[in-house]
From TrEMBL:
Belongs to the peptidase M48 family. The keyword Membrane applies. The chain crosses the membrane at residues 95-117. Residues 180-353 form the Peptidase M48 domain. The keyword Transcription does not apply. Its cofactor is Zn(2+). Residues 3-76 form the DUF7092 domain. Keywords: Hydrolase, Membrane, Metal-binding, Metalloprotease, Protease, Transmembrane, Transmembrane helix, Zinc. GO terms for molecular function: metal ion binding; metalloendopeptidase activity. It comes from Marinobacter nanhaiticus D15-8W. This is Zn-dependent protease. InterPro entries: DUF7092, Mito/Outer_Membr_Metalloprot, Peptidase_M48.
Length: 356
């Protein structure tokens, strides 16, 4: 049994024509530098990948390269007889099995992102102690206060009035440290958000926009839903898991910055966020019905918020981003739903209208 190929000594890059042959229980390398005997246990053979050249790694950093894949396979079977090596080789070269493996890999990857990551995130987030949530929330709020927020400019009597109106809803969950704070922010405008520890931020613009305190109570019910379902901590864990799953799949931290990798990850993270928003809406609707707050208050504040976040008028004369514009856009409305972190406002409004 003799293999023809090239030999690299490891000391330099020069290539030498060589032969690798079986000599009893050993191997013999014949090259321009003479003959070299070695034991099988002292070498390492690269796996077969199609018809690409094979490499036999020799002692002292030497490498023997050959295109005789069948010869290398016979060499391996000579020193390591058994059915396992032949079986593995057949598997590696079976096109049908390769396609099945590819399909299974894609299916497992999709299952991991769409089901495994969200489920694991919820489990891990629910195990987080309140002290961790408090630390994460305090750090987040400090950062937002430096970059997005400034102290509230609402008059004291307005803040007290809203706090008094919110008090019955905040006491519904004594196990949660729910509290409401006000901030001014030109950059984000009318908005509200819930932090993992139960702190709920209302911007001055949202309070001014509301025509009555019941509309603000409807928004509060939605934000309490985020806290009750632990969405804030789940989102933090989920983002970390998505990042590290991609790193493990690619084997390179820099791959996460590649558009072909990061865009799908971002879209999937947004889809998770839409599910959380729907869950918070479900909680809000149930709470409002239990507290005899008309669903119409949620509808009216949502319509006003949608209009305030629009970007002007479209060709039909509707404000871009408004519910009317969504109806006229047709398929564009569905495309917006794919990449939006919140469900379409029209979808949310229909749900509350059905409960009236």
């Amino acid at each position: 049994m003799r293999l023809e190929g090239d030999f690299y000594t490891g000391a330099d890059s020069r290539r030498q024509t060589a032969q690798l042959a079986v000599a009893g229980d050993a191997l013999c390398l014949v090259s321009g530098g003479g003959e070299q005997a070695m034991s099988w246990n002292s070498i390492k053979v690269s796996p077969r990948v199609g018809n690409t050249p094979r490499y036999v790694y020799l002692p002292d950093d030497g490498v023997f390269e050959t295109s005789d894949n069948d010869g290398v396979d016979r060499l391996v079977l000579h020193f390591k007889p058994g059915r396992l090596n032949g079986f593995i080789h057949r598997l590696e070269n079976h096109l049908g099995l390769i396609l099945v493996a590819a399909v299974i890999t894609v299916a497992v990857t999709l299952f991991t992102f769409f089901y495994g990551v969200p489920w694991t995130s919820r489990v891990v987030a629910d195990l987080m102690p309140q002290s961790v949530k408090a630390t994460v929330s305090a750090s987040t709020l400090r950062s937002m206060d430096m970059q997005l927020f400034s102290p509230s400019e609402l008059p004291e009597h307005v803040q007290e009035r809203v706090h008094d109106h919110f008090a019955p809803l905040l006491l519904l969950h004594p196990e949660l440290p729910l509290n409401v704070e006000f901030r001014s922010s030109e950059s984000i405008g009318a908005n509200a958000m819930a932090l993992p520890d139960g702190t709920i931020i209302f911007t001055d613009a949202l309070v001014v926009m509301a025509e009555n305190d019941e509309e603000l109570a409807a928004v509060l019910a939605h934000e309490i839903g985020h806290v009750v379902h632990n969405h804030g901590m789940t989102g933090v864990v989920q983002s970390s898991l998505v990042f590290w799953v991609i790193v493990m799949m690619t084997g390179d931290l820099s791959a996460f910055a590649d558009t072909t990798v990061s865009v799908p990850a971002v879209l999937m993270s947004l889809a998770y966020s839409r599910d959380m928003e729907r869950e918070a809406d479900t909680y809000a609707l149930g709470l409002m019905q239990a507290q005899n707050i008309e669903p119409m208050y949620f509808i009216s504040i949502m319509q006003r918020l949608e209009d305030s976040h629009g970007q002007g008028l479209d060709e039909a004369g509707h404000q871009e981003g408004s519910v009317s514009a969504e109806k006229d856009n047709g398929w564009l409305s569905h495309l917006e739903g794919l990449v939006s972190s919140h469900p379409l406002t029209e979808e949310r409004i229909r749900r509350f209208e059905a409960a009236r």
